[in-house]
Amino acid sequence: MRKAKQVAVIGLGDFGYTMAVELYQLGHEVLALDKDEEKVQDITEYVTHAAVCDATDEEQLRNLGLGNFELAVVAIGRIEDSILAVSCLQDLNVPKVVAKGTSRAHSLVLERLGVDQVVHPEADMARRVARNLTFPHLREILELQANYAVGDLMVPDSFVGQTLSELDLRRRYQVSVLAVHRPGKETETLPGGNYRFEKGDIIILIGREEDMERLEEEQAIG
């Protein structure tokens, strides 16, 4: 089971609001911040704490205890405010800072500031939709049970040359292979035990989130 974290989400637009609520539902202690009092009121009952705050003011962040948080997500759309908020969090020695990039230039500045992870919600959603269009039945499978996840991953080097039977993923990790996409060829759905993996294959798996994570960690899949 994952260890709950203290997370601050700064900026409560669509992305920030959804991020804060989802993190709270996943069991984390979430502090949601925004300059807009109405946005703060709207989210109050869905997170641990919510407060009106100008995240470009380091003193306000310090007074809210941001220096004690393990993770901060900067979801501010305005580039200047986003950069200032990141700088304040770094001065407060927040161990991990994730920030939303709204443009290529914005993302580049965030990376140069040393942000741990820059996310691109619109681009990420476009990739997800593209995958759903390529594998149209995956969404139906995802909706069967909330504690199950479907993920696609590049075949690790340790799998190359081995068959599905030899790897025995179901027994070792309690995950099932739904399909394998080999670039330039037709996608193999529900491959048999004799299917032999090649470098570049993309494996579509279903299983519990903790089992998927264990597979990724043990096989060193980024």
UniProtKB/TrEMBL annotation:
PANTHER family noted in UniProt: KTR SYSTEM POTASSIUM UPTAKE PROTEIN C, POTASSIUM CHANNEL PROTEIN 2-RELATED-RELATED
Source species: Limnochorda pilosa
Protein name: TrkA-N domain protein
InterPro entries for the chain: NAD(P)-bd_dom_sf, RCK_C, RCK_C_sf, RCK_N, Trk_Ktr_HKT_K-transport
One Pfam match: TrkA_C
Biological process terms in GO annotation: potassium ion transport
Domain of life per record: Bacteria
Signal peptide range: none
Domain annotation RCK C-terminal: ranges: 136-221
RCK N-terminal domain location: 4-119
